Amino acid sequence: MSISLRARLFGLWLMSLFGSLVVAVLIIGLFRQTAAAHRERDRAVAARACQAITAHYDFYTANMDAAPDAAAFRAGLRVVLLVALRRERGIVAAIEPSDPSANPGVAAMYGTIPAALSSVVTDQINDAIAADRLIVTTKGGFLNRTTIATCPLGGPLGTPVANIAAVTVLQADLLRSAFTRIAFGGLAVLLVTMLASAGFLARLVLGFSRRLAGVETALASDQPGLLDLTGEAELDRLINALNAATTRLDAARARIAQSERLAALGRMAAGLAHEICNPLGAIRLRAETGLAAADPARRAAALDRILVEAARLEALTTSLLGFAATPSPQPRATDLDALITAAIGGPVAVSMTADPTGIIWPLDPILTRSALENLLRNAIAACAPTDSITITAQATQNLTITIADTGPGIDPALGDPFEPFTTGRADGIGLGLAIARDMIRAQGGTLVQAPATVGAAFVITLPEAKGET
């Protein structure tokens, strides 16, 4: 089973779409893995910063025997934060008591913790002090999250600030990260590429199909001639090849037509010579007989026969003139009943039935009547009194007239009955069918012999004339 170019291009696009989807899934998977790695890194950074604060706080308070005043203690805590976080980036930190109201003024800040996180930070400080261990939590969504680490700090001995803790806050917005921009940019490029390829392939397929349909329409016409180029390089190469083949075919047809015309002319010349030779021979014989006869009656009979043969030559000449003339149709709306009645002419010795069903059709009445008369004349001459002739007509997109008889039919040994000078009757000329066919062809119609089980049948087909008057 052959696959069309459209189907193959669509399959190619589906393959590229599948490949792009695989790449997109890989990018998304890599992005999720990177985001998860960033989450764990943020937790590690926050925990490390918190532990650094704890270590520096322990160093700061190691030699304290008594609690310093609040201002000095806050200053020391700020130094602890600055030293502990000097190598960290993006960290916000604080040292706060578990109960700020019970220990006013004992706190230090490194940056500013968002107010929205104050309650969360306080709760986590209490949890860390209660558990006496590091606690790391992550708040927020997949792309925008906040990591909070809290570490309990041991206060100076004998001071009321024993329940304090260090807190580090690290906020991450993956939407603004370089990797996110790269990932989203890659997905956008894939999407644009697929849409652009779909549009390009659709335009290519539709344009190619439209041009191919134009070529098919041109080839399907009655007179295709040379095809116009489409602008598609591949299709134009095929059209050039078709045009070259058409040119060669037209030349071959012209040669064949010329050969057929010459052959037909030869057959016609042979038939014409035969048709002329017989009457001339008879005229010569009768003339010689009349000249040699002493009886006036025999001379008169010879002259009568000479006149008959001369009349036959005159009829032959008239038929030849009609056959050679080029009909010029003058179509007009014609009542088919009246036309067939006129073609029949009057009483005949054969049973005849006509059923044109009241059809009015645009045609040339003179040419059509002449064709009908030739067909009816042949049918009447071929039929015996016991035979019948039937004329039927039907009008749809074309007008069809069928003339069928129950006579002996046409002897297949005669060959093409439309060939000039082809006749099965001794008194026939053999131009009636050829002339009838030319009359119908002049109107754009056809006259063909139809298959018949009994007798002979001929079918006239006429299109609706365009030049109706």
From TrEMBL:
Domain named Histidine kinase: residues: 271-466
InterPro entries tied to this protein: HATPase_C_sf, HATPase_dom, His_kinase_dom, HisK_dim/P_dom, HisK_dim/P_sf, Sig_transdc_His_kin-like_C
Coiled coil ranges: 235-262
UniProt lineage: Bacteria, Pseudomonadati, Pseudomonadota, Alphaproteobacteria, Acetobacterales
Uppermost EC category: transferase
Pfam families for the chain: HATPase_c (PF02518), HisKA (PF00512)
Reactions catalysed, as given in the entry: ATP + protein L-histidine = ADP + protein N-phospho-L-histidine
Keywords: ATP-binding, Coiled coil, Kinase, Membrane, Nucleotide-binding, Phosphoprotein, Transferase, Transmembrane, Transmembrane helix, Two-component regulatory system
Species name: Acidiphilium rubrum
Superkingdom to which the source organism belongs: Bacteria
One example GO MF annotation: phosphorelay sensor kinase activity
Protein name: histidine kinase
Its EC number(s): 2.7.13.3
Transmembrane segments: 12-31, 182-206
